[in-house]
Amino acid sequence: MKIGIDKIGFYTPHLYVDMNELAVARNVEPAKFTIGIGQEQMSVAPITQDAVTLAANAALEILDENDKEKIDLVIFGTESGIDHSKSAAVYVHHLLGINPQARSIELKQACYGATAAIQMAKGHIALNPESKVLVLGSDIARYGLNTSGESTQGAGAVAIVISAEPKIMALEDQSAFLTADIMDFWRPTYSDQAYVDGKFSNEQYIAFFSKVWEAYKEKTGHSIEDFEAICYHLPYTKMGLKALRTILDEGSEADKERLLANYEISKTYNKNVGNIYTGALYLSLLSLLEQKEDLKEGSRIGLFSYGSGAVGEFFTGILQPDFKAHLNVESHSNLFASRKEVSVGKYEEIFQESLPVDGSRIELDIDKDPATICLSGMADHMRLYVNKER
């Protein structure tokens, strides 16, 4: 029985800031952002969007009534959770009207959370082949204004339906994974902004990739020539390229050209959204699937997931017959085309907006937000969500 990705959707807020404009405002040479880290635009989340609404909007476009009935497990990977106790998955479950006879949980391990969710989903489907699992990776990356990490912020979510006999990608059984207790990136419970040791984190990302890549080859006997493409977790798009370059000498010139060309395609969405933590790897995969016109069924795609702190995993999938017919290329093209650029000043204003922390009531203007699902306010310490279609 094949198990894997049956559907995949994506959502990002309708606002963005141009990285050239941000660089000028920060007295930085624009090429440092556009070439040095490989980012062109950065999605900006208005106060009416949080990790819950982003995930719900991402799932909204891919779920039909049959999916909602078959889904009996919702797993939400995030490091932008909105409650220490209540799972973000429960909110999404309600907002989308999913089958009540379902488990709904939240997972956390930095940017690795959605990958952990997918691996759990595979086990669930193996035991329950008639069911489906909704996996969500949703985050808003925040480092603060005028900080070293500001240029690697972003906001968005990826939603994935895992099932038996998937229409898009069958996930192969063997993978390689690694855990080590390190402090390269973290966010204490008292802070709404992350802390990062940038140089150390970059080093650990490469080290983890090297270790799981070698372990994967030893487990499977596969080599670089067996891959049509390798997608990476992309906190910024230059990071994945650094990792890919460490293994290119293992293959032929044709292997090198193929993997580099496909990497360029796989970063298309990420360079215009920014870092979305748990969803970043899967946004890269989605970019490859939707933007590479001659990608063929039967191709093996490598996936490297990394979550600071740290957990890493290398796993693979095989593209299924007629997979292109089950993607939402036009919808995602329209999503990008409809976004609105904001000035750096406006971005700073949005960044500093916050919800009350004393339990007081607030009503938010959701008419300015074109998203179907929005955060409409707070009352009695509870967030209030609205699905405009219900």
Can you summarize this structure?
The mean pLDDT is 97. The protein has helices at 19-25, 30-36, 51-60, 65-70, 88-96, 113-127, 198-220, 237-245, 253-266, 268-271, 280-291, 329-337, 344-351, and strands at residues 3-11, 15-18, 41-44, 71-77, 103-107, 132-141, 154-164, 169-171, 176-179, 185-186, 195-196, 229-232, 300-307, 311-319, 340-341, 362-363, 373-379, 382-387. It has 390 residues and is α+β, with helices and mostly antiparallel strands.
Description:
The protein has 13 helices and 18 strands. The strands form four sheets. Strands 1, 4, 5, 6, 7, 8, 9, 12, 13 and 14 form a ten-stranded mixed beta sheet that branches. β17 and β18 form a beta hairpin. α1 packs antiparallel against α2, α3 runs parallel beside α5 and α9 crosses α11. The longest helix has 23 residues. The relative contact order is 0.19. The model has no long low-confidence stretch (mean pLDDT 97).
Report the radius of gyration as a whole number of Å: 20 Å
**Based on DSSP secondary structure assignment, what is the total number of beta strands?**
18
Can you give the helix content as a percent range? 25-40%
If you average the pLDDT, what whole number results?
97
- Using the alpha-carbon principal axes, give the shape: globular
Q: Give me the CATH superfamily of the largest domain.
A: Thiolase/Chalcone synthase
Q: Give the count of structural domains.
A: 2
Helical stretch tally? 13
Kindly, what is the distance between the CA atoms of the first and last residues, rounded to a whole number of angstroms? Answer: 37 Å
CATH architecture of the largest domain: 3-Layer(aba) Sandwich
What share of residues are in beta strands?
25-35%
